[in-house]
Amino acid sequence: MTRTYNFCAGPAAVPTPVLERAREELLDYQDRGLSVMEMSHRSPEFVAIAETAEADFRALLQVPDNYKVLFLQGGASAQFAMLPYNLLGNGGTPNYLYTGIWGKKAIAEARHLGGAHIAASSEANGLTAVPRPQDIQLSADAAYLHYTDNETIGGLAFDYIPESVPGRSEEVPLCCDMSSSILSAPLDVSRFGVIYAGAQKNIGPAGLTMVIVRDDLLDRAKPETPTMFNYRVMAENGSMYNTPPTYGWYLAGLVFDWLKNDIGGLDAMTAINDRKASRLYGAIDASGFYSNPIAPLNRSRMNVPFVLADESLNAMFLEEAEAAGLLNLKGHRSVGGMRASLYNAVSEAAVEALVDFMSDFEKRHG
Ligand SMILES: Cc1ncc(COP(=O)(O)O)c(C=O)c1O
What we know:
Elements: E1 5-6, H1 16-25, H2 44-61, E2 67-72, H3 75-87, E3 93-98, H4 101-112, E4 117-121, E5 142-148, E6 150-151, E7 156-157, E8 174-177, E9 194-198, E10 209-214, H5 231-236, H6 246-263, H7 266-286, E11 290-291, E12 303-308, H8 314-323, E13 326-327, E14 338-341, H9 348-365
Parallel strand pairs: 1-13, 3-4, 3-5, 5-8, 8-9
Antiparallel strand pairs: 2-10, 6-7, 9-10, 11-12, 12-14
Helix pairs in contact: 1-6, 2-6, 3-4, 7-9
């Protein structure tokens, strides 16, 4: 069997050793005679899997004790609504930074619940650079400040944490969609109120959503918050108010174990991610044939969009790439062009193969 190189933006590549271990354990988990998929979420076996996964996730990100880690369903899109439900109980206006398509969707959900203030936007620069701290204008009654750390479609990433912005006090928690950047580098969680991420990019399978929420924010839910959307209910029930996504939770645990023990933690991971991104951006910049529109400071290390000088060659590029075992390089349908996602599970060898292919394609068609 040959594994291809998968540059999909999500559901994305999963580390091969993780899939191998899942395969080994699929039918018979640790001599229990059944699959993790078939276990009760209340069984001692599954509770041990769940607790180990949480402990490893906390260790990787050094999550402080005054934060809860939740393993939920509904994707990051459910968090777009869950966040305002949970943080607007004391009133105030949610504030948002708009830097791309995902941020826009988050803003739309806040508007369903009454409104949102756009504290800064990248619209004027065509979503190619994030706002600078001095350009962020919070509303006087800001309930929280939300931003998208890495805009997966545009390939636009924050180069800083928008914490010290004019007029922001500790009363205005920073909330962040880290769907496509979580665990790609070490992070100081203590600077945030809420962090959330769909798992299907840097963690594992679709169907699992990670939430990190500071304890003092568990008392701010709007009274009409649906039970399944309530962070406090989920926290008090260890994310098992109802049946959790057990197999996704287990696979995420295998990925955390791989990150800790095979890779050596997030310092090692970020060094690898830096090398991969530099290699690809370097090749794009050195060519006269490929280009990336994002301001260098805000180029995403996880999602690298690029276009060909001659767009009529797009279909041929994708066809030849696929024949060479390089999959899912087509850009998002809303922006076109190409996009290579370089999440943790995408190896340096994969990036090397992509760069070689791009160079060869340019020689033949450029
Ligand atoms: C940054 C970001 N936020 C939110 C989402 C939506 O995630 P989900 O499909 O898990 O709802 C995505 C999906 O690609 C994303 O990249």
